[in-house]
Every structure is written in C-alpha cells, then in structure tokens.
Amino acid sequence: MAKTINPGLETQEKLEQASILCPYGKLLEVLGKPHTLEIIYGLTIRSPLRFTQIQKKLKLQPKTLTARTKELVKLGLVARTSYNEIPPRVDYELTQKGRDLDGMFKALNAWARKYNYVEQHRARMR
User: Domain residues of the chain, as ranges?
Assistant: First the structure.
C-alpha cells in the first residue's frame, strides 16, 4: 500500500519548528546602545575624527564616549590611533567591517524617506 504524503502538513510542521528568535539580536543589542549608531554614522560621514571632535559634535560625556569607542574597537568596527603628543591625541576611524555598515544606513534612509519619518521627526524636534 502506498503512503499518502500531505504536503500542507509538512510545511506546517516546518513552520512550527522555525525559530521566531531574531538571528541579529546580539548585534542589535550592541548597535542599540545609546550613541553607538551616532558614532558609527558620524565616522561614515567624516573619518578619522579625534575623540574631542566626536565628543563635541555628539555632546557626549567623556566617560560615555570612552565606553562606546572601546566596545566598537573590540568589535573591530572602529580603529583607534593614539599619538605620542602633548596634549594627547587620539583618532578614530571605521575599519572595513565598520564601513560595511554603510549599507544599513542607506537602507534605513530609504525606509525613512518612504514613510516620511525624517520629516516627521524633524517637525517634532522644532
């Protein structure tokens, strides 16, 4: 006797077994920390930037900026260059890995334009 296969049941079983956990959760957790995306975005616009330039432009406390830049360096997204000068000088720039996030900003920009998020956000800020 031939066995009858129900293709709908097979698909349903696959759907039930599929994980609904976001595979990018850890990445989003890191990138979602306060000021992290602002730092990366700023370095996509202009790089390298000195610590003090980033601090002034983003109006960040030195402790906060230090913590974020350390994390970004550890992840390999940002390169840190310190110079043996007085006063001390430290520059930050995106690595290739960090520059590759530019596509994410382009996708966010396209989404924001499509749904007029940028204009609505600006209007609320005024």
Answer: 23-125
C-alpha span between 117 and 126 (Å, rounded)? 15
What does the H/E/C string look like for 79-92? EEEEECCCCCEEEE
pTM: 0.75
pLDDT of 21-59, one tens digit each?
788 888 889 899 999 999 999 999 999 999 999 999 999
Topology of the domain covering 23-125: Arc Repressor Mutant, subunit A (1.10.10)
Q: How far apart are CA 68 and CA 58, in angstroms?
A: 12
Under 8 Å CB-to-CB from 96, ≥6 apart: which residues? none
Token couple for 66: 């230090």
Within 10 A of 10 (CB to CB), how many other CB atoms are there? Answer: 10
